[in-house]
Amino acid sequence: xxxxxxxxxxxxxxxxxxxxxxxxxxxxxxxxxxxxxxxxxxxxxxxxxxxxxxxxxxxxxxxxxxxxxxxxxxxxxxxxxxxxxxxxxxxxxxxxxxxxxx
Length: 102
Description:
With 102 residues, the chain is mostly helical. It is globular and about 35 Å long. Helix 1 runs parallel beside helix 6 and helix 2 crosses helix 3. Helices cover 55% and strands 0% of the residues.
């Protein structure tokens, strides 16, 4: 069963957030919206508009076509400079010690 376009966009945004090491709060700030608005779009309670998709794509340095193609294509298109570097502190991330890690 294939994903709907809405599901593809939500999955692509989730993949970009992960690969870039960003939070919904980071993306919201870049788009000029609240974190709650990003959360609603990511949960499916609201849809990503085409204008939103263009803004998300521009933020990550990819094309809207790459974003709409789904998570694999979006993540592969992400420029190397935007990718999270292992071991680099990610703004807003909490360490395992703070979280009571293993």
